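Thread: Newbie trying to understand structure tokens

Hi all, I'm a second-year student working on a class project, and my supervisor (Dr. K.) asked me to get a predicted structure for one chain before our next meeting. I've only ever worked with sequences, so writing a 3D structure as a token string is new to me. If someone could post the tokens and maybe explain what I'm looking at, I'd be very grateful. Here's the chain:
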Amino acid sequence: MTTLSDVAKEANVSKMTVSRVINHPEQVTPELRAMVEKAMESLNYHPNSIAQALVNNRTNVVKFVTLEDIDTTEPYYMNLLFGFARGLNTKQYAMQLVTDPTKIEKGHADGYLITGARNKDYDLFDKLDKPFVLFGENHRGYDFVDTDNQSAEKMATQYALDRLYKHIIFIGIDIKEPFEYSREAGYINTLQQHQLIPQIYRVPNHSHKAQEVIREHFKEFKKDTCFICASDRIAVGVVRQLQAERARIPADFGVIGFDGVFLDQVSNPKLTTIKQPIFEMGEMLAKMLLQKIAQSGSPQGEIMLKPKLIRRESTR
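---
Reply by user tm_fold:
Sure, no problem. This is what the structure looks like when written as tokens:
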């Protein structure tokens, strides 16, 4: 059985250095940490997670806190959960799911990943006594990971223009939150660069609400229009109502969604969409949170991951 001494000998360092790499990685240089981790991997050495937790006065448990309803018919949050769990596994951490915000601090945990946060929730965060990170951009200085929402809609809008649609309409989510502002800004900035006038509708994030907008205004929409939608749910509603109006997709009307998880593929026609790297964001959130815990709550900043535009049948 491989011991701490074996790792120290393999890496040509002291046992104390190996112990610091395992228990207090923030106290050693990246080069030294890499040497020790390479030796551990070479010898197939795995630290005892229970012993580590005792040494560091930790539980090796973090909480995944969602402040909005999780729709189990959509795998969006499941992808995030699995990515987060995979990231935790690298440090032998366990996860507890919390859906009631009043119970965030009930029981023991070393930190929190918080999803679905809205402006009204920020006062709650200031009262937390454990490290936490957010899934979703914010303007309050809290550490977070998110898609680069602004560049995503810039990409979608430019793509619609490149496909020779003459009229570009944005259908956003009717919510006053940073991610939505960023998406709208990406659309507006791109149109202004082409000296085109933005046209925005906002609806709750439900397909039937998007259908209502298309039904009420269809006669106003000219051919060669592409709808840039703030979610795949909205895009699905747009497609359904365009079909009900016997509009030709994608010849006369294009539709671009946002998310790229499940709904884009079950839509008929399949949606051109902005695909968020959900699984990767889950992994990055775990890495950020665990590093923040290891560094006793030190700020970690923000990470914006680049999305991809997936071309399918709802655009030319």
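A couple of things are worth pointing out once you decode it. Residues 61-146+278-305 form a domain with the Rossmann fold fold (CATH 3.40.50.2300). Residues 125 and 221 are 44 Å apart (CA to CA). Feel free to ask follow-ups in this thread.
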